[in-house]
Amino acid sequence: MGAFVISKRYNDEYKFVFTSRKGKVVFTSLSYELKFECEDDIEKFKAAIESAEFLKFKSSSGKFYFKLMLEGNHFATSRKYTTSLRLQKGIDEIIRYGSKSEVLDFSGNDFVFLD
């Protein structure tokens, strides 16, 4: 099962990624100024996953990606895929596991390994 992972960007804004069962990033959200906005959008997405739209694109370098739309608004952008089949597998994983995936918060600066 995948997971939503909350982290901080270098500019101190929050973001989340959806990772696959194998730990690969499937998509990355937009930036959020406050962490609770990020958490709220994850829960909103999990509840409305059936209504999500996936707009598929091909980059100038020939890679495939999608933009995730929720309620008509741009919600997240996927990583780049080498084939359209892999792109579709990423979308299928979101649909299959997104609503029951756990949320992991790595936005704090709590280091597990001390110097």
Q: Quick one: biggest sheet?
A: 7 strands, mixed
Helix content: 10-25%
Write down the overall geometry: globular
**Strand count:** 7
Structural class: alpha+beta
In short:
This protein is of the alpha+beta class. The chain has a single domain (3-103), classed as Roll (PH-domain like), CATH 2.30.29.80. It has helices at 35-47, 84-97; strands at residues 3-8, 14-19, 25-29, 53-58, 64-70, 73-78, 102-105.
How would you sum up this structure, described in words?
The protein is of the alpha+beta class and 115 residues long. It has 2 helices and 7 strands, in the order βββαβββαβ. The protein has helices at residues 35-47, 84-97, and strands spanning 3-8, 14-19, 25-29, 53-58, 64-70, 73-78, 102-105. A 7-stranded mixed sheet has the order 4-5-6-3-2-1-7. Strand 4 (53-58) and strand 5 form a beta hairpin. The longest helix has 14 residues, at 84-97. The radius of gyration is 14 Å and the shape is globular. The N and C termini lie far apart (33 Å). The model has no long low-confidence stretch (mean pLDDT 90).
List keywords for this structure.
PH-domain like, YegP-like_sf, DUF1508 domain-containing protein, alpha+beta, 115 residues
Give the topology:
Blueprint (H helix, E strand, L loop, with lengths): L2 E6 L5 E6 L5 E5 L5 H13 L5 E6 L5 E7 L2 E6 L5 H14 L4 E4 L10
Parallel strand pairs: 1-7
Antiparallel strand pairs: 1-2, 2-3, 3-6, 4-5, 5-6
